[in-house]
Amino acid sequence: MQLVTQAPGIQVDGCDQPGATKTETAYDRIRRLAAGNAVVVFTAAGCCMCHVAKQLLFGLGVGPTFVELDREAAGPEILAALHGLNGDAGHQQQPVPAVFVGGKFLGGVEPLMACHINGTLVPLLKDAGALWL
């Protein structure tokens, strides 16, 4: 997992979330949401892999914060920032779902499923405060 870091140049104009400011960058918003919630999943409507991620987390008893980018005014800017976090400057890969656990970027559905299969997901969720069992 990697920490969300600042990258200049992406401005968010439609800040419609509590705590957001007019000059907040997309990376700042991602970092704020990830730091303020145990689990955050950035999704898009109609994304089947987003549905898989949601069902896995719900099945484990986690109540993550979901950000549906196609319903956000700043969705395109956040999507571009997520491409950057994925190391996909050419925008060749789908950046959603983008899963953050304990303020750190876990990745998409493949790393999420890999952590689940190898048994490391539940300890990550517990450490983040998303599970109390």
Provide structural commentary:
The protein is α+β, with helices and mostly antiparallel strands and 133 residues long. 39% of the residues lie in helices and 14% in strands. The protein contains five helices and five strands. The protein has helices at residues 26-36, 48-59, 75-85, 109-118, 121-128; strands at 2-3, 39-43, 65-68, 98-101, 104-107. The chain has a five-stranded mixed beta sheet with strand order 1-5-4-2-3, with helices on both faces. Helix 1 crosses helix 3. Residues 1-16 have low confidence and may be disordered. Keywords: Cytoplasm, Redox-active center. It holds the Pfam family Glutaredoxin.
What is the quaternary state of this protein?
single chain
The shape, in one word, is: globular
User: What gap, in angstroms, lies between the N and C termini?
Assistant: 23 Å
Structural class: alpha+beta
**Helix run count:** 5
The share of residues in helices is 25-40%
What's the alpha carbon Rg, rounded to whole Å? Answer: 14 Å
Uncertain runs with pLDDT below 50, 5 residues or more?
1-16
